[in-house]
Structures are given as C-alpha cells and as structure tokens.
Amino acid sequence: MNQPCNSMEPRVMDDDMLKLAVGDQGPQEEAGQLAKQEGILFKDVLSLQLDFRNILRIDNLWQFENLRKLQLDNNIIEKIEGLENLAHLVWLDLSFNNIETIEGLDTLVNLEDLSLFNNRISKIDSLDALVKLQVLSLGNNRIDNMMNIIYLRRFKCLRTLSLSRNPISEAEDYKMFICAYLPDLMYLDYRRIDDHTKKLAEAKHQYSIDELKHQENLMQAQLEDEQAQREELEKHKTAFVEHLNGSFLFDSMYAEDSEGNNLSYLPGVGELLETYKDKFVIICVNIFEYGLKQQEKRKTELDTFSECVREAIQENQEQGKRKIAKFEEKHLSSLSAIREELELPNIEKMILECSADISELFDALMTLEMQLVEQLEETINMFERNIVDMVGLFIENVQSLMAQCRDLENHHHEKLLEISISTLEKIVEGDLDEDLPNDLRAGRFQKFNYVEASGTF
Questions:
Q1: What are 103-145's pLDDT values in tens digits?
Q2: pTM exceeds cut of 0.70
Q3: Nearest CA-CA partner of 149 in 212, 195, 93, 199
Q4: Are strands 91-93 and 113-115 parallel, antiparallel or unpaired?
Q5: Which CATH number is 11-143+156-166 given?
Q6: How many CA atoms lie within 13 A of 304 on its CB side?
C-alpha cells in the first residue's frame, strides 16, 4: 500500500513541534498575537492537527488532557501509543500510516469517530472500550477474515463503516454479510444502505443470525449473572460477612487438611463431621444475616446524617439569600436616593448608612456561617457516636457467635478423639472389622503410645 512520499527524516513529537502546531492552529490577528505573548496552555487545546510531519512515534501528548480532535494522518507511525491521557477525545485520524495492530485505545471511552484508513491492519479487535463509536474507517488495510465483522456487533452506536480495498471486500457475499450481521449500520463504504438491501441480507442469513443472537443472549445473561454476583459479594464485603452465607468457611478449614480428610474414614467420623458442618454453617449463616441487618442500619444512619447535613446547609443558604435580597432591595432604594440628593452632607450621611448596612449584612452572614459550623459539628459528633456504638455492638455480637463456633469445634474434637482412641485400641487388639486405608492404619498406630500417654490427639 502506498504511503505519502516525503523526503524528510522521521521526526519526534517533542514540545517544540507541539508548541509550533498549537501556535499555527490557534487564534490569528490580534487574538493570536496576544495568545502567543501570554502562551497557550496545552490543557486548553481542543483540536490538534499533526498531519504530514513524518512522525514515527506518538509521544508527549499527555498535557493535552482536554483534547477533543486529533489529526495524525499521513505520517509514518507504526504503533498506536501515548494516547492514555486523552480520555475526552471524540475524533481521531490515524489514516495513511504504517500501523499493523489496533491497540492503545483502552482509555478513549468517548471516541466517536476513528479513522485507520490505509494502514497494514489485518484484524479488527482491541476496540472494546470505544462504547460510543459511531464511525469506523478501516479501508485499504489487510483484513481478510469475514468473521471479523461479527466482532463489531458489540458497538451499538456504530452507524458508518468503511472496509473497501480490503481482501474481504472482494468476497461475493461481502455487502450482504455485513448488512445482515450489522443491522443498525446506515452507511457502508460511504454509501447509504437502503431498507430493501437490509431485508434481503436478513432473509439470506436468518438462520445464522438467529443462532448468533441466541448465543449472544446466553452470553449476556451469563455476564449479567456474574455482575450481579460481584455486586452481591461487594455488598457482603461492605457488611464484613463475605462468604459466610454457606459452607465456604468450613470447607476452607479442611481444604488442605490431609490428615483431617483421612480421619473421615474412621467408623462414625463421617456422621460426626456432617453434624459438625451443619451446626457450624448455621452459625455462619446467623452471622451473615446479622451482618446484613447491621449494615442496613449503618446505611440508614449514614443516609439520615447526609440528609441532616443537606437540610442544614440548604436552610442556612436560604436564610442568607433572604438577608442578601432584603439588603439589595434597601441598597437599590438608597442608591436612587443618593443620586437624587443634591446636598453633600446628606449624601455623606446616606453613604455612611449604606456602609453600616453592609457591615450589618456581613455580620449577619458570618453569624449564619458560625451557626452552620456549630450545627454541623454537633451532627457529625452525634453521627460518630452512633456509628461507634453500632460497630461496637456488631463486633460484640459477632464475637459471641464466633465463640459458639469455637465451642462447637472443641466438642467435635473431643468426640473425634474418643472415636480415634477407640479405633486405635481395636486395631491393637485386632477387633476392627472396618476396612481402613493402610497409611491411616499405620500412621495412627505409630501415634497410639503418644495418645495414650498424653490423652490428646
């Protein structure tokens, strides 16, 4: 593919180039001279044109944080990079460069128009963040897989697409395929898609489209379910009870306990373990439900606090507005009287009265401000006391419930010890009819003397 002919050496996007471009594209005549004297801040620039400059690498654009339009066409850029801080960018032209891969666009969430015409791109991907994309120009590239079109279905705002002079544009079904799989598209290769063509395309690919929609619905449902689970988990974390609404905590205790798992083969231990688990999970669920209720109470307390603060500020502002309005009404009347007065002593007297009114208004507003500060301090202190009391009660009750778990654990261990000692005695006496794993039988036998001597397991 032909690139623009330019005998200049590759150039770097340094501050000098950017300042020159901003100056050339800024206001002209008197406004321009004033801007050059005072200097134009890069953060105030909304549009930047850097075409035909033999730029090899995108760099030093981080200062243009409010940029809306960026023109980098007809250069020799090989990689899309250096655009991370341009989150407000709406229009980006990278056509007529040497780009092979779409990348580096993850932060451009406001981009609506993207041109990558005449590059070396072979695959359409890495555009996921561009949820507002309306116009996409990819003509004269190396895209040869028609299935790339399906990727574009996720862009619900896409209305204009250019793919001409790509290998896929030579396919017999090119237009019908795109019209069928991108039904909201209005323009393809700069030509409007009429309703008749859309209907023909839909009929031709109806079976495949229906199957694809079914898969997309399943995937969307899965994504929504995963999102709901994440939100639910976040809610549980806020309440400090995540993973306590089931057997997660109990299962994690035995996840890497190989000896504990081996003991489940002992006669009666399986039933004992199930009973222990059921009771343990009940306590965990009690903690979980209690935590959610307490979190709801804390949320209510926070909402009440926020509402009190809002009402206090609003009432204070209303009082201030009324005092200012009253002053302005009187002040306008005083100004009219001063203009009409001809005697200097009277004018001076009126001015003194106005100054006194201003001082009175200032004192009144300062008094309101101090009242608001005191009111807010009292509200904050009350909120802090309530939250501390609620958190203290929450911790106290959870500790009580966790103590039940410890008591349950101790009881379980005592019963387990009894079964283990009884089993070991049967092994020694040769009265055990149960079929135990060899490693468990051997391992427990070796510890028998220790258990007998210490009375522990």
A1: 999 999 999 999 999 999 999 999 999 999 999 999 999 999 9
A2: no
A3: 212
A4: parallel
A5: 3.80.10.10
A6: 12
